[in-house]
Predict the 3D structure of the following.
Amino acid sequence: MASAGYEALEGGNLKGGALSKEMRHGHGRTAHNMSSSSLRKKSDLTLVSKVRCGLLRSLLTNLQEIFLGTKLFVLFPAVPLAIAAHYFKFGRAWVFALSLLGLTPLAERVSFLTEQIAYYTGPTVGGLLNATCGNATELIIAIFALYGGKIEVVKCSLVGSILSNLLLVLGTSLLCGGLANLRKEQSFDRKQADVNSGLLMLGALCHMLPLMFRHAISSGELTVTTVSTLELSRACSIVMLLAYIAYLFFQLKTHRQLFESQEQEDDDNDDVTSEDEPVIGLPSALAWLLGMTIVIAVLSEYVVGTIEAASESWGISVSFISIILLPIVGNAAEHAGAIIFAFKNKLDITLGVSLGSATQVSMFVVPLSVIVAWIMGIQMDLDFKLLETGSLLLAILVTAFTLQDGTSHYLKGFVLLLCYIVIGACFFVLKTPPNQTNDINLGVLTTKSVAAFRPC
């Protein structure tokens, strides 16, 4: 095969292009990687293999695998178009839209590259890479928004990512999977769902405590100050990060079988989820991962800088864009993969994608954003306001009750999807800029706040 040559050239720890059984079947692939792999396609290397120069053949092979090895390759032109729109000042709303579209294939390619690196590093390091890079888009957007002082955009986008995974992705997957498998019993392993539900409840508790602190202050029940709420948020963030580290140890070491059993059963029978060999060498994968991260950072800066202009141009509130649009577009590839596996009656992978991603955002990205803001001297807390926190808590509870019996049908997915639509409608009607949400959530409606509502 043509890939053997450049694998031997670039993969220093490969011998003759062959991989051990452990590296083939235990290279750290998780539900996130498997979900993204459903959108990949094998590249035709016939023409590339005819190139005599090994260095040029390796470069062309990498380019083909990176840009043509995904079904989302049609969205790659949005990346240079977004950069061009920014420099030639085509319109800030256009920059925002093109940047969002460009982030979609880049997020899928980051997942692909972390999986390629995991072939060489082993399952533990590969799992850690996926745990840190799985939601790289959300984290990078959050950092740029914090740098720009847009704390409410950070909070709304992170809450929206959790809601999207729990209600939209899982609901659509269960609905489509149930309709496609009406005559089959759809079941899944409850153990993985219980672990993620417990961590999500811990995250909801850490969000509720600062919120209850603020309401206790406003009602005069307590004499704590805003500084105390900020300190509580930072302490809760440290606890959440410790819980996430314990979760990684649980997932990658002590109870690894709970998260890999589905992959091992289907590895030999499903050509979508099984790849016996890496297609890119380790140095190239690292270089491409660095390059993709830089491009994601550039587009994330565009998104953060033009979100208000897009809100004014489209007549949609910043809260709705942050909670609904950003998570949907940013994780479209991963979400599509979860739905595809639900069609194939592989709900363990679907749950691993939706619940795993929600847990990753709640227990890793959110507290890390608070810690990063702390380092930057920005006062970001875990008080996500009453409406957002209430929606988050109810979404977690509804999801936990939906998954409690270990079986699924289309009605469960339909209910979850309707919950997401209702929440989305709520934030669409709430035509309130982020800096006015405090008054509304406290129940104090000023003249500006009342005018901000769209009459039904």
